[in-house]
């Protein structure tokens, strides 16, 4: 008779998450699921956030086979019964503040935790990109999975390439943003995003947006964004961001589009070596081309 070994994981809310045996059926926030997929773990269900709709956001899904894994809903439309019907033995969420489960209404989260263990990984401003990556790796390791060792070398090479490109004589100005239509744009504050802080640590010349009330974003018009004289836009590719082709009614955007290089940026990308290597490598190529 097979002996069952209890499983436990200290999550990023400071809670010890326990189960009678190692979990095998995971329901996850889509970003967490995409990250765990890169570690060889296949979720049995996915959920989105209040910014998502009735279908999964491909940008957040990474390399997940989204047509094969049930999407259970998002935001206020996500009912705990939908999550529990997937029969998970573990739910994996992310947290930005170390307390709230991102993407789940508080009532839904409480009802869920009454029936199934819930583990969180912190992805907010208090964590470096490497720390977020390591926490997901620790969770995957506790579940008996991990990334191929060769990916560590790929990440080292991508980071080296990024540092070399960022240290060139031209020092291109890089501005991360999320378009909100032809009249306004959300400019990312680099200190609020682990991936942007990592770019700065590797020498990338990130543009700081104007001061204001927003913690993560500074919301301005396209004229003000143009006034920051960027050379490269890291442009949000999530489904809730406005697509570039819908911005051409604004003359400032049209002018920017003629000389600013656009590079896809996903603020909720998978937190894995594979995903980070790809992002660093793409930016290094763009920096060298400016």
From TrEMBL:
**By its UniProt entry, which Gene3D superfamilies does this protein fall under?**
Nitrogenase molybdenum iron protein domain
What is this protein identified as? ABC transporter substrate-binding protein
């Amino acid at each position: 008779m097979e002996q069952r070994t209890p499983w436990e994981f200290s999550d990023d809310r400071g809670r010890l998450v326990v189960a009678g045996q190692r979990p095998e059926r995971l329901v996850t926030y889509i970003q967490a699921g995409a990250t765990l997929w890169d570690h060889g773990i296949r979720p049995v269900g996915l959920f989105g956030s209040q910014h998502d709709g009735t279908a999964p956001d491909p940008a957040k899904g990474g390399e997940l086979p989204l047509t094969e894994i049930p999407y259970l809903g998002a935001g206020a439309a996500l009912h705990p019964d939908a999550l529990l019907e997937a029969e998970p033995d573990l739910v994996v969420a992310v947290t930005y503040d170390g307390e709230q489960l991102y993407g789940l209404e508080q009532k839904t989260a409480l009802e869920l935790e009454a029936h199934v263990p819930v583990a969180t990984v912190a992805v907010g401003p208090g964590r470096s990109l490497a720390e977020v990556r390591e926490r997901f790796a620790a969770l995957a390791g506790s579940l008996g999975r991990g990334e191929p060792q060769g990916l560590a070398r790929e990440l080292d090479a991508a980071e080296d390439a990024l540092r070399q490109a960022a240290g060139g004589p031209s020092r291109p100005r890089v501005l991360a943003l999320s378009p909100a239509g032809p009249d306004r744009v959300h400019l990312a504050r680099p200190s609020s995003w682990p991936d942007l802080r990592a770019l700065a640590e590797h020498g990338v010349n990130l543009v700081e947006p104007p001061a204001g009330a927003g913690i993560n974003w500074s919301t301005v018009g396209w004229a003000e964004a143009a006034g920051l004289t960027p050379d490269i836009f890291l442009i949000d590719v999530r489904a809730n961001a406005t697509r570039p082709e819908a911005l051409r009614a604004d003359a400032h955007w049209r002018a920017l589009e003629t000389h600013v290089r656009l590079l896809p940026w996903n603020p909720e990308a998978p937190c894995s070596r594979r995903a980070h290597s790809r992002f660093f490598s793409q930016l290094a190529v763009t920096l060298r081309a400016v």
